[in-house]
Amino acid sequence: EMRPNRLCCCVSGTPGVGKTTLGKEVAQRTGLKYVNIGELAEEGQLYDGFDEEYNCPVLDEDRVVDELEEQMCEGGVIVDYHGCDLFPERWFHIVFVLRTDNTQLYTRLETGETVKLQDNVQCEIFQTILEEALEAYQEEIVHQLPSNTPEDLEQNTEQMVQWAEQWIKEHN
Q1: Which residues pair with 79 in a beta bridge?
Q2: How are beta strands 77-80 and 33-36 bridged, if at all?
Q3: Which residues take part in binding ATP (predicted)?
C-alpha cells in the first residue's frame, strides 16, 4: 500500500517526556497538522471499556485508526501518542521515540498514581516503546531523541524541523 505523499511522522515515548510540547512546536514551524491521540479519543469517545488498575479508559485502537485513516492518507501530519505500534506501518515516514532518564520521569510523575509511576519507570528501563517501534517499522525510520532538559527539547525541535523541511524539499 502507498505511503502518504505528504510527510507524516509519529512522536512517541513514555508519558511526561515532552511529546506534546515538541509535536506542537514542530507542527507550527513546518505547517504540519498536529494530532494528539489522547485528545482525539476523548473527543470521539474512542474507548473500549475501562482499566480498573490504571483507572483510565482503554483505547479502542481499531476505531482510532479508522478515525485517522483519511487524514493520514492525505498526509502532512504529526501524531503524538505514547506508543506507535498500533498504527499501520504505511502511515509514517519517520518515527521519533523520546527518551528520558528515570529520575526525571520519577519527579514529573510523582503526582500520578504509584502504579503508573512504577510501570513508566520499568517501561523506560525495558525500552518497551523503542523495541515496539523497531518491530513495527523499518529500523532506518526510527530515531531516538534524548529528552531530559529544556536544551534537549530545543535541539529536538530544531532537528525535527530540519528533517521535515529536508524531506519536503526532496519529495516535492
Answers
A1: 10, 35
A2: parallel
A3: 16, 18-21
Alpha helices of 1-60 — where are they, by DSSP H? 19-30, 37-44
Name the grid cell of 97: 521515540
| pLDDT tens per residue across span 110-168 | 666 655 666 666 566 547 888 899 999 999 999 999 888 889 999 999 999 999 999 99
Annotated binding residue 31:
no
Whether the pTM exceeds 0.85: the reply is: yes
Who's near 98: CB < 8 A, 6+ residues apart? 11, 12, 13, 14, 17, 18, 19, 22, 144, 145, 146, 147, 156
Q: Which residue has the higher pLDDT, 104 or 172?
A: 172
**Binding site annotation covers 23?**
no
Q: What cell numbers appear for 79 in the block?
A: 501524531
Q: Cβ(77)–Cβ(35) under 8 Å?
A: yes
Q: What is the rounded distance in angstroms from the CA atom of residue 171 to the CA atom of residue 143?
A: 20
Does 111 belong to an annotated binding site? no
Tell whether 14 is in a known binding site.
no
Interhelix angle for 114-126 vs 128-136, to 10°? 50
The answer to whether 83 is annotated as binding is no
